[in-house]
């Protein structure tokens, strides 16, 4: 007998909806009143928000077909030397083996299988995001994956990729502003975000921050709903989800699956992987695909699973109430007979593994014999949507364009970035560090005079090195940290890389420029450098320009290596080289290595700082009653000051080159 909680579902169900009700694909989805965006609130369906939904108009159904998908990866064995890696040749490993299926609009397909059976790989392949060689065919209304399909596809990954410091409302509003088409007004987009918040029952936490890591924020279930909401916003025709219920309690899981089913009933094609669904979750699926070690053992109606396995000789034991448990045991090669073996332990573990493998093999063979032929027949049948592909091709050019203009993308990304990073930009710790270093150096160099030229030149060198290191180290973390978000949003075709890149770098500028301005202002005047406003402003400009170059180097290193640790190590080496080759510590660098200074931006900065500080006719007291030309001072003479425009040009080239390198590296992400 079923336990009481298995018999009744407590999640909201749209009135008049039955589980196996599939919607005929010939229907006109746009006009049907039953295809409004589904509404689920804390208290059940909320039709009010549906009425205001601006998404109803853009729904275009997708029939997803995938046939004989096979995916192999090359893996390196773990053996090998520490320094030189494995000496053994790479081995092929089959991850997916001949997986096929059809999902139509209005249907919810669940992919079941034990851990490691290939569910994530399959759903990633269907979302058009799988790297590597995939054989077989995946078609969307009979056509391959195009950027138009990409923009109509929602993909929710297993790990939620969200900004931790934004609130739920901010997260969904920014997504709406970026993803919804420019034909909608800003107000309509915000309304849509509000409507999704209400649909997903997030109203109560809409002003709470997302959180993550050490930041306390909304719960895991709420976070998952925010991720689903981000995809719902664009009213996807195809929604793919990887383990949307993992780590959630059964009620929240039921709520999420109910939402997915309602989304499917709204005319969408919904595919989800799921680990261990309870029987009440299982009853909400229309179709299931069961994988065992990457091979399918069942593909078809969820309600017919027991009947099918019964027909090929696999009956559930008397204790089974949940079809999902039954099929998962089968996918692991465990039958009701094997269970008895477990208790008796006749021949030990090895025998049991053989038995399980032979069960799996017989299930795979049975699938090929019984389920694949009718599926293949269905593949050859054309669907109305398949025929519409050619007709809609003329409209593809329109659909291929970005959802919003470059300027809109830039301004939303800039605002979002500033909001997300406001806590770190204005972090007291950074301000404290810069203030204390500037005060300390101001005191150390307190009212230095030209007579103590070595000290003054030392202060200028310190300017160039401190503001060479700091922005570089801050910038190397930028892209490695942003990588998951960038991959997620770029693979959904939300914005251009150029708008993101410029917004990201411009967003960092205020803080990157304010802090050195404070530093130079304090240290310059305390340190007794030339009391001329023009010289001060020029010194400040040189330091700020050098900050921009240094930031560019950090961005490029981070973007190329995409590993903050490696980038930090490399930049330490680089800065050490620049420090030594800069021309302050070593006056007579051997000719064969002297070229190093020409690639050092801090060398140019130092040269320019010295160049604006001293004039050619300036003298200093080089001995009692003795005056020497500043330009003859060894440390300055070796700098070979000349036309400063060349130094500015060198810095400009570096500024452009490093930023360009960072951009190219991101393009290849
Ligand atoms: N890039 C890779 N390198 C090495 N192994 C991989 C790679 N991608 C997938 N695999 C392997 O392929 C198998 C299938 O992985 P996949 O993540 O698709 O399984 P899954 O069914 O989603 O598992 P889970 O339910 O635990 O998330 C696993 O054994 C995994 O280790």
UniProtKB/TrEMBL annotation:
Membrane-spanning ranges: 429-447, 459-480, 501-525, 537-560, 567-586, 648-666
InterPro entries for the chain: AAA+_ATPase, ABC2_TM, ABC_transporter-like_ATP-bd, ABC_transporter-like_CS, ABCG_dom, ABCG_transporters, P-loop_NTPase
SUPFAM superfamilies: P-loop containing nucleoside triphosphate hydrolases
UniProt subcellular location: Membrane
UniProt keywords, alphabetically: ATP-binding, Membrane, Nucleotide-binding, Transmembrane, Transmembrane helix, Transport
Gene3D superfamilies recorded: P-loop containing nucleotide triphosphate hydrolases
ABC transporter domain: residues covered: 64-318
Family: Belongs to the ABC transporter superfamily. ABCG family. Eye pigment precursor importer (TC 3.A.1.204) subfamily.
Name of this protein: ABC transporter domain-containing protein
